[in-house]
């Protein structure tokens, strides 16, 4: 079957082989332009700032493939806005090239609320920013822990660590303002519970234990007949108190008779162990 090769001189076969190789090589070179779409290139249009639907239409009309590669969330941008494109805008590429887009999410993702109680205000703000949250209002409350986060609030309600919250939400903080100058213990005997709470609250003092006498049905309108600490010590010296501290109160249904010094109730029938603690 190879007689047509063997019957020719060797130099003829070599020449034929060279010609064939050159022909194949030429065909490959000439077809590369067609195979690789040589000179079939287009400029990638600018897409940043456009919505995904707008970008998709622009790319499809220009003959590009579109793939959403990633998504982020930024509340300062429009939902589904294009924030990144690959290849970059105005880059010259093949017309069939795929353009990869990163878009802004339509809704913020849910994240876990960190525990920042006990942090300094600066550390708390840094932690919130790292978690994609924002620092809201800060209010100050007298407390020994100055410049320390006492409470973390969301929409005015305490939020527990680990609770799911939308990224970008504002977290309000209650910060300790330290203890101010001490002042004399106020006299609460004879005041209703509501009046006593308002008096103490205006000075940054909290109410501690509330002990009720038998028959008390309405705590808010019940009367204070004893308090701890009292206004005077055993030697008759005025006591001092600082913002952030607390006062325990004893309540009765009837208004007590206040002694002439205003130091407490003169009623002997009301005993410390006669009530229950709220």
What does this entry look like structurally?
Strand 8 (149-154) and strand 9 form a beta hairpin. The relative contact order is 0.10. The chain folds into four domains: 3-35; 41-104, Trypsin Inhibitor V, Chain A (2-Layer Sandwich); 110-176, Trypsin Inhibitor V, Chain A, CATH 3.30.10.20; 183-277, Trypsin Inhibitor V, Chain A. With 278 residues, the protein is of the alpha+beta class. It has a four-stranded mixed beta sheet with strand order 7-11-8-9, with helices on one face. Strands 14-16-13-17 form a four-stranded mixed beta sheet. Strands 2-5-3 form a three-stranded mixed beta sheet, covered by helices on one side. The chain has five helices and 17 strands. The chain is rod-shaped. It starts with a helix and ends with a strand.
């Amino acid at each position: 079957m190879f007689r047509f090769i063997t019957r020719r001189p060797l130099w003829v076969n070599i020449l034929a082989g060279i010609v064939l190789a050159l022909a194949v090589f030429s065909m490959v070179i000439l077809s590369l332009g067609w195979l690789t779409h040589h000179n079939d290139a287009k400029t990638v249009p600018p897409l940043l700032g456009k919505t995904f639907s707008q970008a998709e239409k622009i790319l499809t009309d220009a003959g590009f493939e579109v793939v959403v590669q990633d998504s982020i969330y930024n509340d300062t941008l429009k939902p589904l806005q294009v924030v990144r494109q690959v290849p970059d805008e105005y880059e010259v590429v093949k017309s069939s090239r795929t353009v990869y887009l990163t878009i802004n999410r339509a809704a913020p993702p849910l994240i876990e609320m960190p525990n920042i109680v006990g942090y300094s205000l600066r550390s708390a703000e840094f932690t919130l920013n790292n978690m994609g949250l924002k620092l809201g209002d800060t209010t100050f409350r007298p407390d020994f822990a100055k410049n320390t986060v006492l409470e973390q609030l969301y929409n005015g309600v305490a939020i527990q660590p680990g609770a799911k919250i939308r990224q970008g939400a504002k977290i309000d903080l209650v910060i300790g303002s330290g203890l101010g100058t001490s002042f004399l213990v106020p006299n609460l005997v004879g005041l209703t519970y509501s009046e006593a709470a308002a008096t103490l609250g205006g000075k940054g003092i909290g109410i501690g234990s509330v002990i009720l006498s038998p028959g008390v049905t309405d705590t808010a309108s019940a009367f204070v007949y004893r308090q701890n600490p009292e206004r005077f010590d055993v030697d008759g010296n005025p006591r001092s108190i600082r913002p952030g501290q607390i006062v325990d109160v004893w309540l009765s249904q009837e208004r007590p008779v206040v002694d002439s010094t205003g130091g407490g109730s003169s009623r002997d029938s009301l005993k410390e162990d006669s009530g229950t603690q709220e």
